[in-house]
Structure formats: structure tokens, C-alpha cells
Amino acid sequence: MSPAPIPKVLAFDVFGTVVDWHGSISRAVTALRPGVDGDAFALAWRAGYVPAMRRTMAAIADGSGSFRVLDELHLEILRSILPDFPQLADLSEAEIQDLNKAWHRLDPWADSVEGLTRLKKKFVITPLSNGGIGLLTYMAKRAGLPWDLILGAEVFQAYKPDHRTYQGVARVLDVKPEEVMMVATHHSDLDAAQDAGVQTAYIERPDEMGPRKELKDDTPKERHPLHFKDLNALADYLGC
């Protein structure tokens, strides 16, 4: 088997790989109502993410609905879980809307900005996220994430792990799929990317799920031999 070509484009999962969604959401809700279990709230909100995307794609497939950006899905999930947290029962509509925008204000991991800045010197870097363009733009502006461009899910009218997303990066940037490397902290994301013909690199994020470390599997997998402790380690490997 011939060696993989040197990638031209690095596409990054964002939630968990580049930013700390759990810690950021937990801090946002406890700042709003100090008595709330921030860990449980963050996990409950995130738990609705995949089912909501599946419902959207099923509605598109049967003609009963259209594509929806993640801000809309997040708000729908938020409203559905509020009854499970009595301390949040008195939230005003303005507070609910602002809490939903907490996903725009997620904090980067300690190595993210430095690692991305190093990688940007040699490669085109872009998020490949199920987040929308607006969400990802406001997040990048606040966190200092130095993307070359922002590819939100609405560009492809699909969410990962649909192959159209990974192959769409190659199409948009006029490169071959094998010249794209997907960088993520989720094995399922990398499995789908590899099936779509894209190179892969795994980034360890042992704290992604907060204190529930048993929920996070950072074990190296044979299928994805490029496995790094953080983005700076990836930059070292790629000679940046």
C-alpha cells in the first residue's frame, strides 16, 4: 500500500476537540443559577444532540422538513430538559435565549489556539463541525481560533457522520479527499471520515465529559494510528 499523501487541508471537529463544551456549559448554567448541577445539565443537553440531528435528517429524507442549524436544535433540546432542573423553572425567555448562546461562547482547550496557529502556517485549517456558520464564527471570534475559513453544517445540508460532509471539504477547497485530514477526539467521527476517503488523526481529550471520565474513550485504535495527546503534538508530528 502506498503511503498517504501529505495533507493539504486539516478539518477539525470542534465540540470536544477544539473547545471544552462540557466545562463551558456547566460554568454558564451555574453562573446563571448557582444551585444547578452543572455536570448533569451539560450532559443532559448534549445527550439530545444526536437524536435531534437524526430527526432532522429523517424529516429531510421523507420530505416533511428541511435542514435546521444547530442553534435551533440546541434551543429545542434546552426547552425539553428545563423541567428536569427545578432551579431553572423561573428562567425568563431572554435568559433561555442567552443560555442557548452559551454554545457560541465555549472556551478552547489550553493548547488549541497555539496548536491551530502552528498548523495554520503549513496547512489550510477549517472546522468541520455540525455547528452552524454563525455559531462557529462567534465562537472563533471570542476564543481566538485562527481558522482560514469556516465550514458549517449548512454548507453541506447534512451533519457528520454523513459522507457528504467530509467529501464536501475536499470539493469546496478543490483537493482530493485523501488530501484532507480529519482531526477529532471521537472515534466514530474518524471512522466515518476514513470511510469517506479522508485521512484521520485522533486527539486525546480525557476531560471532555467533565468528571465522568469513564464516559470518554481515548484508547488508541488500530484503525487510526495517528494518535496525539493534543494539537501541539500533532503540529510537532506534521513539522509545524
UniProtKB/TrEMBL annotation:
This is Haloacid dehalogenase, type II. It comes from the Eukaryota. Keywords: Hydrolase. GO terms for molecular function: hydrolase activity, acting on acid halide bonds, in C-halide compounds; phosphatase activity. Gene3D superfamilies: HAD superfamily/HAD-like, Putative phosphatase, domain 2. Belongs to the HAD-like hydrolase superfamily. S-2-haloalkanoic acid dehalogenase family. InterPro entries: 2-HAD, HAD-like_sf, HAD-SF_hydro_IA, HAD_sf, PGP-like_dom2, S-2-haloacid_dehalogenase. It comes from Trichosporon asahii var. asahii (strain CBS 8904). CDD domains: HAD_L2-DEX.
